[in-house]
Each structure stands twice: as structure tokens, then as C-alpha cells.
Design brief:
The complex is a heterodimer.
Chain A lengths: L3 H19 L4 E2 L13 E2 L3 E5 L2 H13 L4 E4 L6 H7 L6 E4 L6 H11 L2 E5 L6 H14 L2 E5 L7 E10 L4 E2 L6 E9 L7 E7 L6
Parallel strand pairs in A: 3-7, 3-8, 4-5, 4-6, 6-7
Antiparallel strand pairs in A: 1-2, 8-10, 10-11
Helix pairs in contact in A: 4-5
Chain B lengths: L2 H4 L1 E5 L3 H10 L7 E5 L2 E5 L1 H5 L8 H7 L4 E4 L2 H18 L4 E4 L2 E5 L1 H7 L2 H14 L5 E5 L2 H9 L7 E3 L5 H6 L11 H7 L5 H5 L3 H19 L18 E9 L2 H21 L2 E12 L4 E7 L6 H13 L12 E13 L11 H17 L4 E6 L9 E5 L24 E13 L17 E6 L5 E14 L8 E10 L4 E7 L2 E8 L1
Parallel strand pairs in B: 2-4, 7-8
Antiparallel strand pairs in B: 1-6, 1-7, 2-3, 5-6, 9-12, 10-11, 10-12, 13-14, 15-16, 15-20, 16-17, 17-18, 18-19, 19-20
Helix pairs in contact in B: 2-5, 6-7, 13-14
Chain lengths: ~210, ~525
């Protein structure tokens, strides 16, 4: 016998999966080298969770920023601006909130209202109810949130499995190209993870 | 040409920069003072001159000659600001004042001469009235602006008015040396051509001078031959758009104060709008009950609306404390003054508007009110050898400081740029294969091969590859900002790449290539 809670959870999962398929056509563009990872681009109104790499988040946002979209960075005070500019993010349309204090939820909400894409660090504690309220708000404002770290209700999870570099030797050279092996899990709960490889050239602007 | 129509009266205030600086700094009159511009004396007071200081002298030399000399940097803005009230008092006597430069202004002589009954009477009336206002003016009247200026310069304390009779200005100027033209490019050339006085230069054909020296030459020729006329706009007193709100009794709650300034800011913006103007920068001065004055300038990405002005007052009172913060002591008075205005025609929105950008501005202004000023910022790239110096955050709506990015920065790190730059370097420990601490000697070589890396006292990871040290030594002449460090790139056994820095024998992680 299934408990009412699990039935409700299953139903909610089905509703959200049906809702997400409807929005499929319309997405933020991604850079050509990222098409191997997210073929159809970044979907609007959903949450992506990215673990193990900040560069990956910057790379995903870059093409949308170039096409005129406003982007935001919340609670990632250590983000490298030069790397962001190197990927092609337009810093004039980048809004930076370093420390939201204890108003994380309301800040991310008001940023999502006006900004197309928001990169956030995963908050230390977020309840499932708050998460679904935020996801609903994102769906309404059609902006996308990229969470650095784990997020309970993410549309896609992109995880770095392994990372290797060329150019650095034993006491000589300097970092050049990077090879990433990624595990992409599309959709909530369902779907087998897909592996994909990504080569990031030293001069990040493709 | 009717010569009486062209007569010009010049009012000259001797040592104006000194007088202006004295008034601005509220210095006593007997304090010898010198204003410094580009390392040399630009102007000095009469008592400093008496002890041997003079224009063009090096600062040290002037201080040596006059030990009690007070040295202040020259500020043209102070000059111009302090001259405004003088011009205002002059305008009460005669209309149509044109400012040639701070301390020197010109008026058409015909009107005052008729009104006061003669040029001499007009000049002495102006001199007496200015003297009553404690301003020592010297006056010159001649056929041309330059002639009148020279005449004014020739006056003395005992004979403060000098009048060159109509039609004789050219002869009056003829004997003056060519250097009085005060044109550092033209004067040496004219000297080499054998022209040593203004008369020599004025004797040349005007067309030939124009062909050889162009526009600047023609201007100088007109001055030498007493044919330069008054031109340019008359001084018009600037309309005062500022607003002033006093609270009696003093208020200490931000929302009360914000409510109090609302009407004043609305009327200020309305008055500007009536004049076809918008305000793009604003200065807010808050005076508290304890007498403390806090002034801050605010600029706006577009232009200020009344609500924006109230927001800025709120932010200034809150400081960086967020919605719950308030002023330290009750506020007695708030002055709003537009620091920069612009014609509203330049700020009309297009037919289809800039709705998205405006929406963003609104939302961010609201966020600013909640989180406190400075919490929302726009990032720009700065210049520097160290990565954290290259990240510059400017509070939303403030002006971006000029970037030093385009300068060459030898010793900066080659691309790719790290995606994580620690605002505060994270302490780390790097050891060799035998556990010995790694250090760099004076010759820039490591004592051993780095083998183990540990950050924030976490368990050490094996270093799979590394490069360095890349030494950076900067500003050794400046004890505050001087830094000397060695940098390394390292990859740990988990495949994470780090930019490590060794400074004063302490290891830290400057950035992470993640």
C-alpha cells in the first residue's frame, strides 16, 4: 500500500515533467562547444545544477549574455571576472550580488523577476517547499537558474566526473587546454545519465 | 567703425587664486601661501613674494626662501567657484559681464560710461563698490579686450584705474614685448623671426599671418593690433534647483525622513523639468543634530525621478546596513542639490521604450533598498598583477572608475583565466616528498620539488604536475602597497588546478581553475 505522501510526490513529479516538456521549444542559446553537452540549449524557467566546475556555468551563460540577455550572479563572491569576460559574458549586463545575508530566497526571487539567467551558489539549507515555490516563480518569469552545487528540484544535473589539463609539466610549462568528462542527467529523477566529453581550449573565447 | 561702441572695461583681481584659496581654506590674511601646480609654484601671496618666492619656482626652493610658507595644491575649480559671488556683486552695478578667466572679466564700457557719466566716473564707481565688498579690483579701459587687460595689469594700488584714450590702444600695446601674448608655441617662432614687440607683429599683413600661422596666429595678431572684440556668452547667473529640508524636531527614523523629503524632491524634479532639464547626478548633504555633516554624490544610470531621489536619501541614511539600519544621530536638515543636469531632450526614451532595461533598473533599485547600498554592483575588469586587483566591483548606478586594464602588466598570469578568484587568499601548505616545507630562495629557485598540497588544513593531496616559481615584485618604493611573491600553478591528484602564491614564506591559494 502506498502512503499518501509518496503518491503526492509521484503525482507532483509527473505534473512537473509534463509541464517541462511544454516549454521545450524555447531555450537560451549556448556556445557551439557546449552543444555536445546540452544539445537544445538552456531551457527557460528551470533550474540546472552544476557540480564540480564554475567554468561550466560561465560557459553555459555566455551565449545568452552575448545575445543581449541580462545575467546575474548571487552569492558567488569568488567568481573570476576575467574568466567570465573571457567566455564572452557581457559585464555591462551582469548584476553582481555578493552577499544577500539572510535574504537569500527573496533576493534570488527578485533577481529572477528581471534577469534571464542567474548563477547562484547552492544555499546551505533550502526546504523542499521553498525550492518548489522558487521553481514555480522561475517557470512564471521564464528565467533560468544555474546552481553551483546540489539543488533538490533541478531540471538537469551536470557533474564533472574527471578533469585533466595539458601544458603543465613537472616544474615547467603553464596550464593550457582542459579536458572535462561530464555526466549529464536530464529531467527529474528519470533518465539514465549521459556521459559527454568537453575540450576547453586555453583561450576560452571560441 | 565707431570706436566708442568697442570700448572695453576689464576688471582684474590681482592674485585671485591666492584670494580664492584663502577664502576656501579660511586662512588668516598674514599666512604666506603658495599654490602648487605640476610641482612648481603657480601663484604666491604678496608676503611670500616679498621673501623671495615667485611663480615657476620649485616647491623646495620656495620653502627654503620663505620657511613659514604654506603650500597648497592649485585647484582651478576653487578659483572658478569663488569667483561666482564676485561676478554676482559686479553684475549689480553693471550688466553683461563676461568672464575671461577666474579673476578677470570684461564688460562693454559704453553703457556704464553713459550711465555714470564718463568712463573715469564709471571705473571709480565700480572700484569703490568692490572695495566696500572687501575686493581689491583694478580696472582698465581700452579699445580692445587685450588692450584693456594690459591696461588693468599696469595699474597699481594707489592708481587702480587706467584708461587708454580712444584710438591709441595700438600705440599703447606697440612697445610691449612679444612674450605678453602668452602663447608658448607662437612666441618663440615670432622671436626667431625677429619680431620682439607687439608693434612689430601688428605691422605684419593680417592675411599673411593667417596663411602662415592659421587660426591661433590670427587671434594673436588681432590682440597685438588691438582689434579683438568682446565675444562669447554673457555670464548668466545659474538657476538654483537645489532643495533644502529642515526637520524640527530632528528625526531619527529613515522612513519619516524619507517621507519628509518626498515633497521637496518632487518639486525639485518638477522645477528642473520646467526648465527642460533632468538631473543625472545628485549631491545629498545630511546634517545631524550633533552638527555632523555627511555629503555624498550619487549618479544615476538614466536620470533621477522624485522616487529615485527619495531612495538615494534612504540609502545614504542606511549606509551599508540594509533595511533595518538608521542614522547614528537624529537628522536636522537635508540638502539636495543637482550636481549634474542635462537637457531632457537627450534623455527621452524611444518610441518603443527601453522597457526591459528600465525594469531591471527598478528591480535593482528596490534590491538596493532592501540589502543596503553597495550590495548590488556591476563588475568591471581592472588592472594589476594580482588577480584580486583585476576584479573591480562598482555599486549599481555609480560611476565606473577609469580602468587601468590597458596598461601593460608584466608578471600577470597567462590565459586561461581561473574561474574562481579568492577575494581572500586561502591559507595552504605545500611540502616536498619528504614532508619538508617548500620555499624559494633569493635567487628564485625552490629548495625541493613540491609534492604535497593541503588547503585550509585539509588532508594533503599529491601534486601531479606543477610549474613555477614566477616571481612578482611590485612597488618596492611604496611601503603600503609593495608586494613580493612567487606564484606556482599546481594540479592535485583529483585533477583540480590551483594558482598558488608564496609570500613571506607563507603559502596561499590565489585562485582555482575549476
Amino acid at each position: 500500500m502506498e502512503s499518501p505522501a509518496s503518491v503526492r510526490q509521484a503525482l507532483q513529479a509527473r505534473i512537473s515533467s509534463m509541464q517541462s516538456t511544454r516549454l521545450d521549444e524555447d531555450a537560451f542559446p549556448v556556445l557551439p562547444i557546449m552543444r555536445g553537452v546540452l544539445g537544445r540549449g538552456l531551457r527557460r524557467g528551470v533550474v540546472y545544477s552544476i557540480s564540480g566546475s564554475t567554468s561550466l556555468a560561465l560557459a553555459l551563460v555566455a551565449a545568452a549574455s552575448q545575445s543581449g540577455e541580462w545575467c546575474g550572479v548571487l552569492d558567488v563572491p569568488d567568481l573570476g571576472l576575467e574568466a567570465a569576460a573571457g567566455w564572452g559574458i557581457d559585464l555591462d549586463r551582469l548584476v553582481w550580488v555578493a552577499d544577500p545575508g539572510d535574504r537569500w530566497m527573496s533576493t534570488v526571487g527578485s533577481m529572477a523577476d528581471v534577469l534571464g539567467l542567474v548563477i547562484v551558489r547552492a544555499p546551505t539549507r533550502v526546504t523542499s517547499a521553498e525550492a518548489s515555490r522558487l521553481v514555480a516563480r522561475l517557470r512564471q518569469t521564464r528565467s533560468t537558474m544555474l546552481v553551483l552545487g546540489e539543488w533538490p528540484q533541478s531540471e538537469s544535473q551536470i557533474r564533472v566526473v574527471s578533469s585533466s589539463w595539458t601544458g603543465l609539466g613537472d616544474g615547467h610549462g603553464h596550464l593550457a587546454d582542459r579536458h572535462l568528462e561530464l555526466e549529464v542527467r536530464q529531467g527529474q529523477g528519470g533518465g539514465a545519465p549521459r556521459r559527454s566529453r568537453l575540450r576547453v581550449p586555453a583561450a576560452a573565447i571560441p | 567703425m565707431n570706436s566708442s561702441a568697442a570700448r572695453v572695461l576689464v576688471v582684474w583681481l590681482p592674485d585671485w587664486p591666492i584670494t580664492a584659496a584663502r577664502r576656501n581654506l579660511e586662512l588668516p590674511v598674514d599666512q604666506p601661501l603658495a599654490l602648487i601646480h605640476k610641482g612648481v609654484v603657480f601663484a604666491c601671496s604678496s608676503d611670500a613674494r616679498a621673501s623671495g618666492a615667485q611663480r615657476g619656482l620649485a616647491v623646495r626652493e620656495a620653502q627654503l626662501r620663505c620657511p613659514q610658507l604654506l603650500v597648497v595644491a592649485y585647484d582651478p575649480q576653487t578659483d572658478a567657484r569663488a569667483f561666482e559671488p564676485v561676478v554676482a556683486s559686479l553684475e549689480e552695478l553693471v550688466p553683461g559681464v563676461r568672464i575671461l578667466r577666474p579673476g578677470l572679466c570684461a564688460i562693454r564700457a559704453r553703457g556704464p560710461a553713459r550711465f555714470y557719466g564718463g568712463e573715469e566716473r564709471a571705473a571709480s564707481t565700480i572700484h569703490e563698490a568692490m572695495a566696500k565688498a572687501d575686493i581689491a579690483a583694478r580696472l582698465g579701459i581700452a579699445d580692445s579686450v587685450f588692450g584693456a587687460e594690459r591696461a588693468a595689469l599696469k595699474t597699481s594700488d594707489s592708481a587702480p584705474v587706467s584708461i587708454v584714450e580712444p584710438g591709441t590702444t595700438r600705440q599703447f600695446l606697440a612697445s610691449a614685448p612679444i612674450s605678453t601674448l602668452d602663447d608658448s608655441t607662437l612666441v618663440p617662432v615670432l622671436r626667431r623671426l625677429g619680431l620682439h614687440s607687439l608693434g612689430d607683429f601688428a605691422a605684419l599683413d593680417q592675411v599673411a599671418v593667417g596663411a602662415r600661422f592659421g587660426e591661433a596666429g590670427l587671434r594673436a595678431h588681432a590682440r597685438a593690433s588691438a582689434t579683438d572684440r568682446l565675444s562669447g556668452a554673457e555670464h548668466t547667473p545659474e538657476a538654483d534647483f537645489g532643495a533644502d529640508v529642515a526637520f524640527e524636531p530632528a528625526l531619527d527614523r529613515v522612513d519619516q525622513i524619507a517621507f519628509g523629503v518626498r515633497t521637496a524632491s518632487e518639486s525639485m524634479i518638477d522645477r528642473l523639468a520646467e526648465g527642460g532639464l533632468v538631473c543625472t547626478a545628485l549631491r545629498i548633504t545630511v546634517t545631524s543634530e550633533s552638527g555632523e555633516r555627511r555629503e555624498r554624490s550619487w549618479s544615476h544610470p538614466h536620470h533621477f525621478s522624485a522616487a529615485d531621489v527619495v531612495d538615494r536619501v534612504r540609502w545614504q541614511l542606511q549606509g551599508s546596513g540594509g533595511a533595518t539600519a538608521g542614522p547614528a544621530s537624529p537628522v536636522e536638515r537635508i540638502e539636495l542639490s543637482p550636481a549634474r543636469v542635462d537637457a531632457s531632450a537627450n534623455h527621452e526614451s524611444g518610441l518603443w521604450g527601453t522597457s526591459l532595461d528600465e525594469r531591471v533598473h527598478h528591480a535593482l533599485a528596490r534590491l538596493h533598498s532592501v540589502l543596503g547600498h553597495g550590495a548590488v554592483s556591476t563588475p568591471t575588469l581592472g588592472g594589476g598583477r594580482f588577480l584580486s586587483e583585476r576584479q573591480v566591483l562598482v555599486a549599481w548606478g555609480d560611476e565606473t572608475p577609469p580602468s587601468k586594464r590597458t596598461l601593460p602588466w608584466p608578471g600577470s598570469i597567462p590565459p586561461p583565466a581561473p574561474a574562481t578568484v579568492f577575494a581572500e587568499p586561502r591559507p595552504a601548505d605545500v611540502r616536498g616528498s619528504l614532508g619538508e616545507p617548500i620555499d624559494v630562495d633569493a635567487r628564485g629557485t625552490t629548495n625541493s620539488t613540491p609534492a604535497w598540497l593541503s588547503l585550509d588544513r585539509s588532508p594533503a593531496l599529491k601534486i601531479s604536475s606543477w610549474a613555477g616559481p614566477w616571481s612578482v615584485t611590485q612597488r618596492w618604493w611604496d611601503s603600503e602597497t609593495r608586494r613580493s611573491a612567487h606564484r606556482f600553478q599546481m594540479i592535485d591528484s583529483e585533477g583540480m588546478a590551483w594558482l598558488m602564491i608564496l609570500e613571506d614564506h607563507e603559502w596561499a591559494a590565489e585562485a582555482r581553475y575549476d
